[in-house]
UniProtKB/TrEMBL annotation:
InterPro entries: CHP02241 (IPR011747), Phage_T4_Gp19 (IPR010667). It holds the Pfam family Phage_T4_gp19. It comes from the Bacteria. This is Phage tail protein. It comes from Flavobacterium psychroterrae. Coiled coil: none annotated.
Length: 156
């Protein structure tokens, strides 16, 4: 059994792509879902059959303070989004790692064949003193989950 102090916290994570680490304040959209199709059976009016079809995922949404020009991630976004499909999109595997208090990986998500689909900058307002945030959305084919064996028996 794992002590409650051993549970990983959601603010200690790293993200990398193409071997480059990138710091973010927030990552969201880590989900997958199995779609269903409802089938009505002739002569049976009490229920519908609910059959599984395909799985789908949300876009991975990354938020961070705007990084000065020259960021490999921003260059990759610009190359994919600005080229209008005149050049082939270069998908990358993106790896997100959740760390424990000692900096050891507890859970790792690998987003396969990811590519940017949206780049946005927070509103600029001269009446507020907020940090300017850039948001990057990545579409991906699927993601894999791997974890530290210490946490494998948590829910069994």
């Amino acid at each position: 059994m794992v002590d409650s102090t051993d549970y990983p916290v959601s603010f200690y994570f790293t993200l990398s792509f193409s071997g480059v680490d990138a710091a973010f304040k927030e990552v969201s959209g880590i989900s997958k879902e199995l779609s269903i199709e409802e089938i009505v059976c002739g002569g049976e009016n009490r229920f519908k059959y609910r059959l599984p079809t395909v799985s789908n995922s949300q876009n991975l949404v990354l938020k961070r303070a705007i990084v000065p020009a020259g960021s490999q991630l921003v260059n990759w976004c610009a190359n994919c989004i600005d080229q209008g499909l005149s050049n082939a999109i270069q998908p990358q595997n993106v790896i997100l790692r959740l760390l424990n208090a000692s900096g050891i990986v507890c859970v790792q998500w690998t987003f396969n064949n990811a590519y940017p689909v949206k780049y946005a900058v927070s509103d600029l307002n001269s009446q507020e003193s907020n940090i300017a945030i850039e948001t990057i959305e990545l579409a991906y084919t699927y993601f894999d989950i791997s974890s530290d064996t210490k946490f494998d028996n948590l829910f069994t």
